[in-house]
Amino acid sequence: MKRQGDEMKEKKEEGAVQLHRTIGLLSAVSFIIGTVVGSGIFIAPKGVLMNSGSVGLSLLVWALCGLLSTFGALCYAELGTTFTKSGGHYTYLLETLGPLPAFLRLWTDVFFIYRPAVASYVSLAFGRYVVEPFFAPCAAPMVLIKIVSILGVTFVVAVNCWSVTVASRTQVTLTFVKMFALVLIIIPGVIALAKGKTENFQNGFEVDLLTLDRLPLAFYNGLYAYGGWFYLNFVTEEVINPNRNIPLAIICSMVTVTVFYVLVNVAYYTVMTPAELLLSDAVAVTFANRALQGLASVIPILVATSCLGALNGGFFGSPRMLFVGAREGHWPALFSMIHIRRHTPLPAVLLLYPLVVVMIATGEIYQLINFASFTRWFFIALATLGMLIHRHRFPLHPRPFKVPLAIAVIFTVVCFFIVGLSLYSDPWNTGRSCALTLTGIPVYFLTVHRFRLPRKWRQIFGDRQLQILLEVAQQEVQTY
């Protein structure tokens, strides 16, 4: 039986300002699948085929991207059980390689590249699938697509500011909806394949159109569709029994997603020719018009819902990195504060909103993929390299889950190879990403390293009136 003092302590902690552990195994699996399965599987097939040059090679790229993502997810399972803080990439870089790489990850995520670009990509996909059916067979106005995309982002931000529980339940519900959408695509494809419709797979490995400089872009598009396997690590402090649930959730989720993704692409090529797929900006809609005439109007709704789920997962996880960074002193303290009643990291969520809106208004969807991917995979590679270094330096450090060394090495080497080759394949976008990342170095040494934040920053983000307006306060209970 619990002592009275323990019960009083638990009640006090429940009422304290903190992020509570509310994510169980089912929620964790739903969180990963719901974030991974978003716009990518419905838009990226065009990019994969365009840059791989053949049906067979594109399917191989999808399978290899799933395998590589699973390797990375297993590495992050070890990192997530070794370091019990939330924050994902930022925390692992901080703990293994030091504060400068961690700050650069935070800098690029918030201000320039990664998070706004990712959210913009998913939002534009959401807007496209909502608007395009009303204008078919004509092209939908891009202005209207962007307006609907911004409305989708606004809804997700509102949910994540309102309640962690509501955001989590929304994610579980949207995950089931999006898996239903994938099943609706797979079944007609399997039926057509069983009836002998295999002409699009004949001579599937023609390599005449393949060029080495474009192959990394095929992998970028495929890996982008698998992106999201690391988001559970952003909320480690909110996972129930993380030593058990993080590895289990990652393994179950990634195996499921890889199988579904390959089957969906097989279904696409069974019903559509490669030329038709390349001409479509909304592959699932074109597929539905061919194979699901009776349900063609439902598919865009399901796909839009899927995109919304991925967007919700991103906004649920990513602000925790900013929250932890502010808690470590790498960002203004306001962003380490939590709403006193709703227990959400309100300032961190709100900061991302205007950045995403600006990028939606100015970005182009395929450029956004290449623009964001360099930074994403560079810092993921650094995180897993840091894991290997930490293993070597601290061999006796407790590791509840330990990934095989070969998997960690293969994943790290492949990531660095793809990142390096991308500088040759798409020097403009990846070069911009690299340059903007490096702008964080002087910012770090002028502000964080010397603890000299500009006075205006201190006045704006340290203003107690702003804290009172947002109704936020510092975390009262240590959750790691």
Automatic annotation (TrEMBL):
Localisation: Membrane
Parts forming coiled coils: none
Topology of this chain in the membrane: Multi-pass membrane protein
Main subcellular localisation: membrane
A molecular-function term among this protein's GO annotations: L-amino acid transmembrane transporter activity
Keywords in alphabetical order: Membrane, Transmembrane, Transmembrane helix
One Pfam family of this chain: AA_permease_2
Membrane spanning residue stretches: 21-43, 55-77, 112-131, 143-164, 176-194, 214-234, 246-271, 291-311, 344-362, 368-389, 401-424, 430-448
Domain of life: Eukaryota
InterPro entries, per the entry: AA/rel_permease1 (IPR002293), AminoAcid_Transporter (IPR050598)
Annotated Gene Ontology cellular component terms: membrane
Protein name: Si:ch73-352p4.8
Lineage, highest ranks first: Eukaryota, Metazoa, Chordata, Craniata, Vertebrata
